[in-house]
Amino acid sequence: MGKLYGLSLGPGDPELITRRAWTLLQSPAYWMYPVKKKNGISYALNIALAAGLRVPPESTALIFPMTHNRQILVNYWLQAAHTVIKVLQQNQDVIFLVEGDASTFSTFQHLAKTVVGLDDSIEIETIAGVTSFNAAAACAKMPLADTDDTVAIIPAGYGIKMIESLLDDFDTLVLLKVKPILDDIIDFLTAKNLLDNSCFIEKAGSIEERVIHDVASLYGEKVNYLSLLMIQNPNRIRGEIIRGCRKIKSITQELGK
Ligand SMILES: C[S@@+](CC[C@H](N)C(=O)[O-])C[C@H]1O[C@@H](n2cnc3c(N)ncnc32)[C@H](O)[C@@H]1O
Asked: Which residues line ligand 1 (CB under 6 A)?
């Protein structure tokens, strides 16, 4: 039986592919990659191609449609899992290409669970990668977290109420999947005077990357699905760190050292 790898490729820049992932990409493993529909484009596969690799003849696109209908999704997960298992049974390793990191909001987790549900003897390994928001923070030149900062990463679809309440507790809020509610978020940021503390990043790490600090300028625009918003809340009222990792020294000790 072969082994299934969740192969994180990072957000789009081939330079952000880890060495571990790169080694596996050179191996004779069978490639599988996600598409939204039959003959659809795979962003994950395109990252590997942008790195100068060729799609091996032994490769298959697996369909994962964009729907919230659980029954439809489960059927596609099952179909994909059966396809993976068929190849593993030929004693061949399978690498499933993932955009960003395979542990972070990734189809790979559904695929892996379904595969193990069908055969719990199958070995699975997740290869860690650079997430979209790590890359976005770097290109926006906005730190995700400084010293004792708190950070929350959520799909924006939870809505404005949740965004507002999280900003009370988090210094940095990362909103993924912003496309459908971007205008509502811009209205909210305007009302809260937080536009200057926000940044929109689309296709971070790819050649089509956009970093927009003037978030309000996006009002009414149909942005790409691969986009996120970083919001920092300079007005957050901080709690106290009750027990930190740093040693507490008196000022006399500090000065005497
Ligand atoms: C299903 S999640 C995938 C997250 C991905 N596994 C990761 O590690 O970042 C898709 C969402 O992640 C964000 N995203 C993924 N890739 C991105 C990129 N290159 N630039 C900006 N946002 C991205 C977008 O918010 C998108 O709607």
From this structure: 11-12, 99-101, 104-106, 131-132, 136, 176-177, 201-205, 225-228
Distance 52 CA to ligand 1 centre (A): 22
**For residue 68, what pLDDT is reported?**
87
Q: What is the mean pLDDT of residues 189-201?
A: 97
Regarding whether 110 and 22 lie in a shared domain, the answer is yes
Question: Does 104 share its domain with 148?
Answer: no
- pLDDT value at residue 243: 76
Q: CA nearest 48: which of 66, 36, 33?
A: 33
Choose one of 153, 226, 229, 231 to mutate for the ligand 1 pocket test, by most ligand atoms within 8 angstroms of C-beta: 226
Q: Is 4 helix (H, G, I), strand (E, B) or coil?
A: strand
Residue 119 structural domain: 4-127
Is 55 in the same domain as 161? no
Residues 84 and 182 in one domain: no
Are residues 74 and 27 both part of a single domain? yes
Closest atom of ligand 1 relative to the 178 alpha carbon = 25
| CB contact at 8 A, 104 and 128 | no
